[in-house]
Amino acid sequence: MKRACGQFRERLIAVAFGSADEEAEAHARSCPDCSRHLAEIQDVRRAATVLTLDAPADLIVAAKAIAAGARAPSPCKRISSTLAAAGVRAGDAAAFQELIEAGGERLRVEYRREESGWSVMLRLPTEGWEVFALDSVCEPDADGYVTFTSPDLPGTAFVILSPDGAHSVGPPGGGSSDN
Ligand SMILES: [Zn+2]
Fold first, then answer.
1. How far are the Cα atoms of 50, 119, 176 from residue 68, in angstroms, in the given order?
2. What span, in angstroms and rounded, lies between the C-alpha atoms of 23 and 33?
3. What 3-state class would DSSP assign to 81?
4. What is the pTM of this model?
5. Distance in Å, CA 41 to ligand 1 centroid
6. Over the stretch 80-111, which tens digit does the pLDDT of each residue have?
7. 18 Cα to the center of ligand 1, angstroms
8. Which residues, other chains included, contact 80 with Cβ-Cβ below 8 Å and sequence gap of 6+?
9. Which residues are CB-contacts of 179 (< 8 A; sequence separation ≥ 6)?
10. What pLDDT digit, counting tens, does each position of 104-152 carry?
């Protein structure tokens, strides 16, 4: 039966996309390899359908992160911080800014203490960039500004998706949990 598998593999793609092919379907039922192959194609097809129709934002981000290199986001380079200039720790400041580098662009990130926590604001350079923070996509406004508020400083970590891949921006102060 092994030789038969080859002839059915392409036909199973058509089956996964809705074609009727009794012979190929019967083979898939009797062959664990082809059955698994068919299930995989169906998974891909479902994912593709979801993505093109009404994909939840987090699924789009996940898919883009995978497309961007199938690896974890690379850490952003922090170029400068107004904290260092003022000589205060992030948790003691009312507001500060950091300059970071992501995807070949320099972005200014503003952190501001508010009643409900820390608000983070940055401006995305062009369309096609996205920010993923607090487990969801933050929609930029018409001018490209993204704002989100985390209850604490560690929660201000976020990921920038740029055309050249995903970049993580850890909480200010190198991840220490001073709040
Ligand atoms: Zn087979």
1. 19, 28, 29
2. 16
3. strand
4. 0.59
5. 14
6. 888 877 777 877 888 999 999 988 899 999 99
7. 19
8. 98, 99
9. 91, 152, 153, 154
10. 899 999 999 999 999 999 999 887 788 888 767 787 888 899 999 999 8
- Give distance in angstroms: CA of 9 to centre of ligand 1: 8
Look at the alpha carbons of 73, 75, 80, 84 in this order and tell me if their dihedral is positive or negative.
positive
CA gap 63, 105 in Å, rounded: 23
Smallest CA-to-CA distance from 72 within 163, 170, 165 is with: 165
Residue 68 near residue 48, CB atoms below 8 Å: no
Helix (H, G, I), strand (E, B) or coil at 85: helix
- Reduced to 3 states, what is the DSSP secondary structure of residue 78? strand
Q: Which residues of 90-115 are buried (b: 16+ CB within 10 A; e: fewer)?
A: beebeebbbebebbeeebebbbbbee
Contact 100, 169 (CB under 8 A): yes
51 C-alpha to center of ligand 1: Å?
A: 29
Residues with Cβ–ion distance below 5 A, ligand 1: 5, 31, 33-34
